[in-house]
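In this section we walk through a basic example: taking a raw amino acid sequence and producing a predicted 3D structure, encoded as C-alpha cells. The instruction is simple. Fold the sequence below.
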Amino acid sequence: MELAVIRMSNRSRYVLALLMIACIIGLGADLIRPAASDAAAPTATSSTAYVPPIKHVFVINIENKGYDSTWGANSAAPYLAQTLRSKGVLLNNYYGTAHNSQPNYVAQISGQGPNDQMQGDCQVYSAFAQTGTVAPGQAVGQGCVFPTSVPNLTDQLMARGATWKGYMEDMGTPCRHPALNAVDDTQKARVGDQYAVRHNPFMYFSSITGAADCDQHVVDLGQLSSDLASASTTPNLSYITPNLCHDGHDAPCVDGEPGGLTSVNTWLQTWVPKILSSPAYKNDGMLVITADESDGPQSDASACCGEGPGPNAALPGITGLGGGRIGAVVLSPYVTGGTWSTTSYNHYSLLASVEEVFKLPYLGYAGTSGLNRFGLDVYNSGWNK
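The resulting C-alpha cell sequence is shown next.
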C-alpha cells in the first residue's frame, strides 16, 4: 500500500486527502476545499430543490460573437439561432466576464478573475506568481498557470467521485500545452493544427497539467463519439472546444473554410445531434452553448450581475467591466423548447449552476452574493410538479 501511495500523482494524493478528511470530520467531500487563507474558502451551496436530477453536463463555447450576430434574425448560424433555440431556453441576458478570450474560459471552471497577462491571451505560458488571496477566493498576482493551491471545478468533481473530460478539437496529443514560461505557439492557426491552448482552460491549472492522468482527462475531440455510446462512458462533465475555425474565431480559415458563424453552424450540425441522441443526454443531461466573449473590448465590454474591478484587473473587460452581452442556449429534458429567460447571467453564473447540479461549493466569483444561478426560469419543463 505504501508503494502504491508513493507512485500516486500529486493530484491523486490531493484528491485522496480531501476524501479522507471529509470522512474523518463527517462534513462530506463537497465541503472540503484547500485554501491559502480563510478568504479563499469557497461558499457552500444553498438549498437547491429547484435543480433537477441532472447527471451529465455538456458545455460548448464559440468565439468572439455578440448577442445580435449570433441570435439575431440574420444570424449566419441558423442551426444554432433557430433549430437549437427551438429546442431549448435562450438566455438573452447572458454576458462574458472579460476580454480577451482566455480569462472567460478560466472563469467558467474556477471563478478566477483576469489579470493583465490573461487579458492578453497569455502569449507566454507563464507561471502565476501569487502574492496573496482575497475574497471571494481570488488569487492575487500575475501570470497564467495557477499553482495547485488555486482550486478549480475538476478538483471538486474528482473529490466527489464524479468524472470529467475536456474535448479539444485538433489537440492531437492529450494534455498538450507549451512548456512553462515558454511562448505559446498555438496563438495562430496552422493547416492541420488549429488548436488553441488559450481556449482550453484546463491547461492553466497545475493540479491538472501536473497530474499523471492529465492525458486521460484532456483529450482530442475525436474521443467524444465513442464516449457518448453509453451513459457509463460519458463523463459527468464534458467540456467541448472546437478549433479556431469551427468556433468562429477565424474568418476565413487557414484551410480555406469560411470560418465565422458559417463554420460554427456546420460544426454544430455535426456534433450536437451526437450529444442530443446520446443515452447520457436523453436520460439526465444538460447542454449549454455560449460564446466566450462579444466581438471584442472595443465593441462591447459591458457586464452584469454586479461584476466589478478585481484585485488583478481594474477593468476585466479592458475597456469596461465585462465581456459583453453574448447570450446562451440551454437544452435538457428538463427544459421547454422555444422559451427564453431575461434573467441576467454570466460565466460565473454558469460555474455556480454546474456546481449546484453536482452539489458542490461555489468557487471564486461563483460565490458572489446575489449572483443569479440557473433556476426555474431555465429548468422550466415543470419537471418538479
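Looking at the output, two observations stand out. The chain has 13 helices and twelve strands. The mean pLDDT is 91. In the next section we compare this with other chains.
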